[in-house]
Amino acid sequence: MNPDTSSPILPPVKRVAIIGASGYSGEELLKRLLQHPGVEITLVTSRQNAGQTVAQVYPRFGSQPVARTLRFTDPQVDAVAGQAEVAFLALPHGVAASYARPLMAAGLTVIDLSADFRIHDPAVYADFYGGAHPAPELLAEAVYGLPEIHGPALKSARLIASPGCYPTSILLPTLPLLQAGLIAPTGIIADSLSGVSGAGRKAELDYLFCECNESVRPYGVPRHRHLAEIEQELSLAAGARVVMQFTPHLIPVNRGILTTLYLSPSDPLTPTSVGEFGQRIQQCYQDAYGSAPFVRLLEGRALPDTKNVVGTNVIEIAWRLDPRTGRLVVMSAEDNLVKGASGQAIQSFNLRFGYPETTALN
Amino acid sequence: MNPDTSSPILPPVKRVAIIGASGYSGEELLKRLLQHPGVEITLVTSRQNAGQTVAQVYPRFGSQPVARTLRFTDPQVDAVAGQAEVAFLALPHGVAASYARPLMAAGLTVIDLSADFRIHDPAVYADFYGGAHPAPELLAEAVYGLPEIHGPALKSARLIASPGCYPTSILLPTLPLLQAGLIAPTGIIADSLSGVSGAGRKAELDYLFCECNESVRPYGVPRHRHLAEIEQELSLAAGARVVMQFTPHLIPVNRGILTTLYLSPSDPLTPTSVGEFGQRIQQCYQDAYGSAPFVRLLEGRALPDTKNVVGTNVIEIAWRLDPRTGRLVVMSAEDNLVKGASGQAIQSFNLRFGYPETTALN
Amino acid sequence: MNPDTSSPILPPVKRVAIIGASGYSGEELLKRLLQHPGVEITLVTSRQNAGQTVAQVYPRFGSQPVARTLRFTDPQVDAVAGQAEVAFLALPHGVAASYARPLMAAGLTVIDLSADFRIHDPAVYADFYGGAHPAPELLAEAVYGLPEIHGPALKSARLIASPGCYPTSILLPTLPLLQAGLIAPTGIIADSLSGVSGAGRKAELDYLFCECNESVRPYGVPRHRHLAEIEQELSLAAGARVVMQFTPHLIPVNRGILTTLYLSPSDPLTPTSVGEFGQRIQQCYQDAYGSAPFVRLLEGRALPDTKNVVGTNVIEIAWRLDPRTGRLVVMSAEDNLVKGASGQAIQSFNLRFGYPETTALN
Amino acid sequence: MNPDTSSPILPPVKRVAIIGASGYSGEELLKRLLQHPGVEITLVTSRQNAGQTVAQVYPRFGSQPVARTLRFTDPQVDAVAGQAEVAFLALPHGVAASYARPLMAAGLTVIDLSADFRIHDPAVYADFYGGAHPAPELLAEAVYGLPEIHGPALKSARLIASPGCYPTSILLPTLPLLQAGLIAPTGIIADSLSGVSGAGRKAELDYLFCECNESVRPYGVPRHRHLAEIEQELSLAAGARVVMQFTPHLIPVNRGILTTLYLSPSDPLTPTSVGEFGQRIQQCYQDAYGSAPFVRLLEGRALPDTKNVVGTNVIEIAWRLDPRTGRLVVMSAEDNLVKGASGQAIQSFNLRFGYPETTALN
Prior knowledge:
Four copies of one chain form a homotetramer. In chain A, the strands form two sheets. The first copy, chain A, has a seven-stranded parallel beta sheet, sandwiched between helices. Chain A has a seven-stranded mixed beta sheet with strand order 9-10-8-11-14-13-12. Chain A has two domains: about 5-165 and about 340-355, Rossmann fold, CATH 3.40.50.720; about 165-335, Dihydrodipicolinate Reductase, domain 2 (2-Layer Sandwich), CATH 3.30.360.10. Chain A has helices at about 25-35, 55, 65-70, 75-85, 95-105, 120-130, 145-155, 165-180, 210, 225-240, 275-290, 340-355, and strands at about 15-20, 40-45, 70-75, 85-90, 110, 140-145, 160, 190-195, 215-220, 245-250, 255-265, 295, 315-320, 325-335. In chain A, helix 1 (about 25-35) crosses helix 12 (about 340-355) and helix 8 runs parallel beside helix 10 (about 225-240). Chain A is α/β, with parallel strands linked by helices. The first copy, chain A, starts with 13 loop residues before the first strand and ends in a 9-residue tail after the last helix. Chain A is built from twelve helices and 14 strands. Chains in contact: A-B, A-C, A-D, B-C, B-D, C-D. The interface of A and B includes residues 39 and 293 of A.
């Protein structure tokens, strides 16, 4: 028996538009919003799929009646503004901002899954994404949609910048430790392994089955775009500018990110301090995430495994102190399309509009 | 918005035991019953995992409170009988019957996922499974748990013999055609491809990653045990004894069965009869499954793909007439652990106890 | 110790061009011809890779000195004719013929991996490939490059039409039985499973990792183009027109084809005839392939498995009689890029020019 | 044309025994030694497969005549000593030493693929492997079989301790830099991803297809046994004791190791020193490996990819300087069963007995 099904009085249903729902994140968003009791999907747009039903584009939704009648349309700002109170943007960076501005002007709440509003400083955006920010005046009010960290601000946000998959897997394990001063803000290394869906649904040779299967490879070394938002959030937590090392790798799974973090305790570890320092880390994580429904702090000898989180909005976290090297090794696992993208965006939606945080995320 | 969440008045919650929940089917059963509003899991048993919590054995359930407190116990008939009204048996064949008998005697409804009660004739059981049937007196009242076919009988069954994965993928596409006399009962061939979870969670060399990955192989040729129940049900539909050809293959996916059926129209196809015969097939399927929530009849040029059904209780069916050979080719796709095992068992549970058929199966 | 390395007196080295070497078959051809002691690769062409070295296009060859100096050029008939005695064509159908004609006119021997010269009857070509044959005058002298069947004719062929991957997996197990009159020419069914490399190296959504991984699906039902050449060769062996059923499926492996054939013995099987008929089949295969270096007739309980042939030029064959249905089930496994394409083309090259049949194929 | 086939005068054929050839490394050893012109395999042993032919145990060798006659025997020291001049040991650690001692006493050259003789200091062995070393008197003369580093010593070695897969992937990229003083001996981090064959051919739940497929996970954190030999070799190169961080991960491929190394330049990088320091690294690698046939130094924007080395004895190396963090990131890719195990052992064999280094390794 699922005790969550006892019926709370839910806020009124929101009319929701999904703009750009033809990729893997859009599909995951659709899947979950179709089941959300507080959501009426009034519009789904996709330039390439306009005219087709959701069931035609995504056969796996074909047994849901709504999916057989709801049709993709061309993305028209006026239509969206007229039919929805909330818009999820699953668009390429740069394009998202051009929709966010008029939709917000028309009074909609915007939840953007692109990078467009994640970076507070337009100069950093320009540096990492190449070119001036398309809507700099909106940056100040965008809230970085990491619910475990920015939950209170999300409750009244008009513009939510939902984080990327790598940043989520790096920030959630690191921010509490930095905030508590347990680790040094220097020398941070994140080594991440991502499933192929992270590259999107694009017809490119590099992502063909035969190019990815039986293959592992690093890419984007040493300066991946996601560093911009990661370092921003780490710096805010540390109260000092953080510059870090990040190496993404592509591995042959559909979904999942596994991140291994190499961190330095603020005070050097000694044989006598190891035990006590370990307790402080445990307490720090417990304080930060003990009541967070989607952070699973592993116990005992368990280590994260993407297969235990795929299909869920959960991030697993485990840590080990290495007295030989004096380092703290922290590992996390998440589903890049759920906690790393669409699930997290819905978690923000839930907080923003007063639904139980786990709605449509079980 | 999910219209199914409008609250019907549900039957009272059932106390449910899961006997033998340490394999992949048991895990899927647990996952869905933990979310079923009409189920209180009072007992889960597993000889090898006794004493451990569900969350320890299945880390992916670790974020559900019940999974952190519910502990596996040794399977004791008395304890089960005292604490549950319904027992799901996820046990090896032969063992299941030894639990079913005393549990039924104690008044429980039994839903058995093994082969023990699928075959009506004890001689056929002995022929295919080697050895006398362990509880022949119960065979007469067992209902073969294919809800789309035996729905009415399931509503009052005390003993439900839930079908195997291959049989489901073969029977659902074939039975209506046989019953309508559209195809000949002779010469039926089923060529099936199964994911590795179908072999169970056993530490055997044959199912190691490196033995299955980048490999495809037939097995059990030409006489697989599942033929017993398949031919029984086909014969019932045809009103004549059916003997068929069946070749299972192992392919490197976790889940999913794809079956291709080669069937002969009752009357020879001619260039002029093809169109009209196609309409009769379509009508036949429409009549049989038009309102079945878990059978998806594909339209247009779509063909079944396991990736569109994995994780769901849906079976996809498509067909093609080949005027060159005069044959009817029918293809189906299902998730072997859901529609092919645990999902189907819950579908039967729902029918048996008056829950909406799709409860916990979305 | 490899006894094959005792040095026979080899024929003089041939100057060889590979036309269109940018796909998976081209890569496999290159890999093996680079190691062939009787081959000097004088030219490799590829429109899209012109100017790049072989090592740049295929990093895995980067440790071979020749691969670091040999550069792809634009395919120019004159250049090819001037620099090579033999041309392997790894081009799309239709395009291949436009190269074959002038190259043959210039005196080269052509080994074509496309479908252009496999079909003797231009009307059948037009029916299956849509459009008139581009060089019908050459069809008469093309030899279908199945060395185990057409070996003698290959020794003097000027134009070798190397078979496709599916046809090889179907024809080698079937032809000897048909020729010996052991099976009926009617009712033949081939159910085949192919790795994704069979679809070529094309940037299409359907072949992305996430679309193929954890997926199995039939395609091209019921009329795949390869039927044209399969039925032609079966008909020649049977001495009567053969029309058959063929269903290809896509499975998530890089390489490998597994084919299961459903055949009818010429005389009905009876309980008393089964044993003797089995001996005739075994003898038939032994006579046909007992000394064929690349056909492995499995013994005892062994069944074909693609992982045992991938990377080799071997085809595995096993068979079972089913006294219940009266059918003969034959199964084969091969590497679609080796025995199903490039390896077989080199096998023909070896026969044509007097090299040991296994040269560069171990 | 393969220029290596011009016939050098080869040393006389060696009689070779393979002890413990029932795992994945043993299979790879067999595959290559069966093709080695300087090797006559006189004996293969395997307790579990005794009595069976090589072709029965490894169907993929079934088309090689030797594999159909050579039979596995029980491993008996006397028989080995009487029939072979060289013994490859593919045995678990601890067991290998018990064979090495009597075989060396009988005059054989021993090439050991286990960890037993890799560690010079018995105290370190005891610390990492638990228990006293079984043959400490042999440690002094064992040569660590990394041919690119210890080539001269290998030429006269009686006992070769062939390195493990992770150590090879870490040492080859790191040793030249340490030796040249270009990087600091402190703070070294290696993050490695290994295919499942690295876990051996063992019937354990953890390595079942369904437990590894669609999964990525770290293990052995923070103190993997391979650290003992890695730190020993790094320390020798650095002239100082090196302690490093190493995190292995299991990824769903059959073969391949991808290692990402985080290193600190000896002198802090400045915007002006980056270019010149990069040249020194490039020169260092060029000096170390410019003529090494199995080390591929990638150029331009290329990064290592396991699919480009699988099935070969090559290790790919690429590096990047990160001026933002001041770090040097080095990446390597190898086949764990070839350069990481059996190929490397044969490379040592070739050097030891005067065969061209690449014999049987192409």
